[in-house]
Amino acid sequence: MDVDDSWFTIHPEFPEFSKFTEQAAEAQKNNGGDRFIARKLPHLMKKVGFSRIEHEVLAISSINIGLKKFIELTTQFKVLQIQSSEGYRLLKAIEKKIALQENYFFGIVAAFIIAGTK
């Protein structure tokens, strides 16, 4: 199970959110990770001999769990990847904007559950 940040969005998007998620993706890439791995998993699994690959996509949205919980689940941990004062500043700006206008924003992310037989 993993995510693909191309399926992660908040609407309407705002500069602090965009910059924060870009910095998180870059930081994870610099540490050998990939915020866009889920779309690649079936291909990678086939390359190493998996067959009967199945997938399920689970959408998690702010409608289901509330916007504050959505940000906690999808965004807050990324500040540990960024590890900079700029990252903390952007996260605080996101949290402030969300708190002031919680009913204005909509967030959604997809979790990819992929399994196969080897």
Contiguous uncertain segments of 5+ residues: none
| Helix-strand category | alpha+beta
Rounded to the nearest angstrom, the distance between the terminal CA atoms is 17 Å
**Radius of gyration over C-alpha positions, nearest whole angstrom:** 16 Å
How many DSSP H or I helices?
Answer: 6
Question: Beta-strand level of the residues, as a percent range?
Answer: 15-25%
Report the helical percentage: 40-55%
- Secondary-structure element pattern, one letter each: EEHHEHHHHE
Question: What's the rounded overall pLDDT mean?
Answer: 94
Q: How many individual β-strands? A: 4
Biggest sheet details: 4 strands, antiparallel
Which of globular, elongated, flat, extended, rod-shaped describes the shape?
flat
Description:
There is one protein chain. This protein has 118 residues and is an alpha+beta fold. It contains 6 helices and 4 strands, in the order ββααβααααβ. It has helices at residues 15-30, 41-47, 62-65, 67-74, 78-82, 85-100, and strands spanning 2-3, 9-11, 51-61, 106-117. Strands 1, 2, 3 and 4 form a 4-stranded antiparallel beta sheet that branches. It starts with a strand and ends with a strand.
What characteristics describe this protein?
118 residues, four-stranded antiparallel sheet, alpha+beta
Compact summary:
By secondary structure, this protein is of the alpha+beta class. Helices cover 47% and strands 24% of the residues.
Give the arrangement of secondary structure elements.
Layout: E1 2-3, E2 9-11, H1 15-30, H2 41-47, E3 51-61, H3 62-65, H4 67-74, H5 78-82, H6 85-100, E4 106-117
Antiparallel strand pairs: 1-4, 2-4, 3-4
Helix pairs in contact: 1-6
